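Exercise: predict the fold of this chain.
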Amino acid sequence: MAQRHNTIPQMVFAQARRYGDRAVLKVKRGPAYEEISWNELVSQVEGIALGLMELGVKPGDRVAILSENRPEWAAADLAILSLQGVTVPIYTTLTSAEIEYILRDSQTQVLFVSHPELMAKVVPFQEALDLKVVLFDAPYRVSGPRVWWLGELLGLGKTAGDFLREGWLKRLEAGKGEDLASIIYTSGTTGPPKGVMLTHRNFLSNCEGIQEMLPINEKDMTLSFLPLSHVFERTAGYYFVLLVGGRIAYAQSMEAVPSNLMEARPTIVTGVPRFYEKFRERIEETVRGAPAPKRRIFHWSVQVGRRWAQRRLAGSPIPPGLALKRWLADQLAFSKIRCRLGGRIRFCVSGGAPLSKDLAEFFYAIGVLIVEGYGLTETSPVITVNRPDRFRFGSVGIPLPGLEVRIAEDGEILTRGPHVMQGYFHQPKGTAEVIDSEGWFHTGDIGELSADQFLTITDRKKDLIKTSGGKMVAPQNLENALRGDSLIADCVVIGDRRRYLTALIVPELAGLEAFARKRGISYALPEDLVKERQVLDLIWERVQAVNQHLAPFEQIKKIALLAEPFTMSAGELTPTLKVKRRVVAERYAAQIEAMYKEP
């Protein structure tokens, strides 16, 4: 595949010359969405870049962004990249200690922070890291002189003079595809997160591959609500949209997404499975509260839609009677549901975690196609994707043009091409463990590749949990923390493809028995003891003590206590006493499902 642009900012500035005053970004400030043109965007990029030069940012320097999705995120990122700098995105939900680790490990010199509340997470370590901070929102001062408001940074750039601007233009023009663009920290199965190094070529080759697969163009608009710290939103919902000349509307918050969909009326939605799950849950909740006649109409419509969908997917002709019923179902129910997505959706894209086949079929039945893709942070991220004109529910689609995918002898999915990361930041050993001598990246996922190139994920080779919201969690870290409690003998964290994390916990029986005697709790068997409300509350308090040190997506939301320890004889432990997660999950499937039932 021919590389059309060397770097991301070179691509953006070329697009700005093409589109000029045409809108590219939309942000809600006050009662309505306001538009930002291509010219306005690149003007702000230039101002921020010159300000960063005044702060001493050199090629290769790391500059981090701790912010929600907003126009300033894009402007800061593009400014960093235009200077041949390296963007380090940070989730706003991380704890102060986790943020400090990323900044220290990446050796970040400057940090953009969106507002004072987030700045409070930075204050404890700012001086120790000798960190320069730029705040997007209102002027805000902390002790020390190393905090600037964005307006002040832009002022520095304006007074810099032509010499500095010439230096910036030289950097912008000199950028190369192999230059490092970003270090994105992703959780490993053990130990602290690793910094994935992605180049401009990684990102742009991925965007150009997506462009050949998905019919998205300059007439389309997306609603940006997945965190830009997530590589899926970074590539598919940001760089790719700029590449095709589309528009991006920013959601005010995750809570505001339902109303923002109605206001911005996007044509394309990119989301993780949890977004679509929650949308379906809201539909079903509305139906439960509706009068009986409306409930019957909805359920009849869904049944009709599913029958229609089954025939469409099988390539069978639609009988006239079914076609008429489907049209009626659309008028009575489905069109109203699609209005909740803004009423202009052409199709949706799902990534970041596996999408259930049933969920995809439900949306297709009501007239909303969700095309699922697959990839990892280390692959920029897209490896495969379904196309609107060639899709198969239950699969993650076909490989992007310009890259290779094959299945290893043990079933692991391997991929090779321009999308594969440069490596893990200052971790050559870790890099060598996942990229072999022939350049194949080992995904850690098990899958099957059909004769017509559709990839299906069947298992996870590694224990890393990916929630349905796309968050990556290393279960061993949580389990080790829980096992550190004297009342917890063993545990298994559950949550892969789920909405939140739960845990199966084997309590330390001797400790529980002592607690029961002290509280006067009578029981006949251990099975009875672990069901006692006071015992459940006791263990939950211990879990909460671990939760308070974790980011929200890492926290255990529910627990189930087990009366029997895991054993080798039951097939739950390996000879080296490692828990066999699949065996445990199958044996205690009923308890696990109970933890995911509402409320």
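Check your answer against the key: The domain at 273-343+345-459 is CATH 3.40.50.12780 (Rossmann fold).
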